[in-house]
Amino acid sequence: MRVRVRTILGLVEVLGGREQDVEVAAGTTVAGLLTHLGERCAARDPSGVFRAEGGGIQPHIRVLVNGRQPAFLLGPETELHDGDDVLLLPPAAGG
Amino acid sequence: MFAGGFTGVILRVDLTTRTSSTEPMPADVARDFIGGAGVGIKYLFDEVPAGADALGPENKLIFSSGPFTGTTIPCASRMAVTGKSPLTGAVGMALTGGFFPAELKFAGYDALIIEGKAEKPTYLWIKDGAVQFRDAGWLWGTHTGDCQQLLKDDLKDQGIRVACIGPAGERQAKVACIINERRAAGRKGLGAVMGSKNLKAIAVRGSSEVGIADEAKFKAARSSMREEMRQSPVLYSAFAKLGTPMVVDLTGALGILSAKNWSETGVFVPVEQLGAESQKEVNIGRNPCHNCPVACSQIKIARTGPYEGTIAEGPEFETYYSLGTNTGVADQGAVIAADRLCDELGIDSMSAGSAVGFAMELYEKGILDSAATGGIDLRFGNAEAMLEVLRLIALREGIGELLADGVKAAAEKIGDEAGYYAMHVKGLELPAYDVRGAKAHGLNYATSYTGADHNRGYAFQEIFGIPVPWEVDRFSYDDKGKLCKWNQDVRSATCDCPTMCAFLLDTSLPATAPANTAALMEAVTGLVYTPEQIVDVGERVNNLARAFNAREGFGRPDDTLPRRLMEEPLQEGGSKGQLIAQADLDAMLDDYYTARGWDVATGKPGRAKLESLGLGYVADELEV
Ligand code: SF4
């Protein structure tokens, strides 16, 4: 299946673009996607946004699935579906 | 009388009689309201009678800094300007930073209360204890930048700080603001109040320092605050470099960056043209506020196109919305030029930009024709037309006369379905965040005492994902009333009153702001508060402001949102499908009034709540 991964600011460089479609196996969870992205982006991720060990992402990065934080779904084990919109947000401020 | 922080002196100026006097800052007012917005609203409620004409001599303008202003506390740069708003008829309170607020303090005053109306154009020259009423006929008509420079030259002191109005304030355009340096007490039409008083400018020079009650405690409290700033995951690493425009990227991704008068949020998302990356090319410097180590404020230059070479301080995020996405203008140079124009003419870039976006939608829908626009091709995206209409608004000419008093008044004049497209709450035009995708932020628009004002109760939990006081789902309605109250009270108590730049609240102090404020209050002023008592100050201020509005006839029916937000779901983007239906707004309001201890049917504060906050006299006045 295919999910849309979007990001902003400093993470654009790490992920190699503002948005991209990513092929993952059916049943992939949020945690699984982050591990996959970590492997895929390792060469562009010197500061370790994606954690090398155990998967996951730095605690200040917000992950939204279809606009919602996984905390309000099923956490990192939230299962993704074809066409889901996954947004990775580094800290921002102002406004 | 005060061990530090406060000067203890309020300066009262009567423009009608050309007299001034000083009076002590009452100890109980200082304790209960701290300063800034709190003190401004206290004097507004007590001294401006119900039903006063906001543009008449009975309205007042209160310039009030706080006990932190002018000290070496980082980012304590601000001052509230308070009066009855001509735009909304409710509390008009706007904060400004820069250097004027500290200078007023150095001149010896916690607050300056302006009363009456000058017979002819006048400016005030305040040099420490000396107050002069001076002819401003020669300044009338000047832009705000020129006005400030002319006064510095004339008074032969480049260190003077000036707050002034431009041509829009002189004409009492209700979207007019007050400018000091390149900062604005921007919203709610307070520039029109100043203009109605024939007061062109206030020039200030002071030579005293702000006292500190306990130096050792002060150093400890300040360094602990600095440490929290250093620990912030965003303050120095991102915000100090990118400034507020980074929120263009964030809200664009969240699908809540409002566009084309809120008809194309999530559809028209020009992040590449107006967001953080595009700033690199146009940023040429910084201009931090008084004693601010962050320096988020950026000076920008238009690099290409017809506005090449124009320099502005800003645009900030909100202006990239109001003069950018909201008008369909995805062009850095044009937004920089329009921002500069707003500052020079003395109009609020947010309300004025909203008014232009509103007129553009009406023009595209055929509700306004080219006879109404004076032949201006007012389609979305026409930058030249936007700049021309901004100029006309400030001068009250042509279509500018229709728009100069904001979208609510314009829609009433146009009639028919224009009201549907007028994006405001209580007459104040909406800020950038399309709150269909951020419900507590939307509830704050509906209930803020100044109308649709993101700054009175910013839901950083929804926008930035900060899990304080608890983690929230931005699409959920659960407990959003309680959250909105928390945001409004904490913001008032820790930012708007002491005073403190609100950017520190969410970047550095979200969980510790009340404790930080309490520690600093004790160190600076000697007044001892618990963190809970600090938050009580915020609750008191919100209740008193609410009481002022209730006395003016505002109630639950006014706590609403534009119908578009309740009827049209977002079509695209990161919040696709979201809206705030009337029933959901009603449920949030019930939760909010209950959390506030207000009457759920009327939205009015009751006697028990008011008395618990020491506002028994307000209950008497409201007859509740
Ligand atoms: S962070 Fe920005 S707005 Fe706040 S005090 Fe500093 S320069 Fe001014």
Mind telling me the C-alpha Rg of chain B? 22 Å
The CATH class of the largest domain in chain B is Alpha Beta
The CATH topology of the largest domain in chain B comes to: Aldehyde Ferredoxin Oxidoreductase,  A, domain 1
Q: Report mean pLDDT of chain B, rounded to a whole number.
A: 97
- How would you name the CATH homologous superfamily of chain A? Beta-grasp domain
Second CATH tier, the architecture of chain A = Roll
Number of separate strands of chain A: 4
What is the name of the CATH superfamily of the largest domain in chain B? Aldehyde ferredoxin oxidoreductase, N-terminal domain
Please tell me what the overall shape of chain A is: globular
List the uncertain runs of chain A. none
The radius of gyration of chain A is 12 Å
Number of domains of chain B: 3
Looking at how many chains there are and whether they match, the oligomeric state comes to heterodimer
Shape of chain B: globular
Q: Enumerate how many helices of chain B there are, as a single number.
A: 28
With strands numbered from the N-terminus, the spatial order across the biggest sheet of chain B is: 2-1-6-3-4-5
* Proportion of residues in β-strands of chain A: 15-25%
Strand share of the residues of chain B? 5-15%
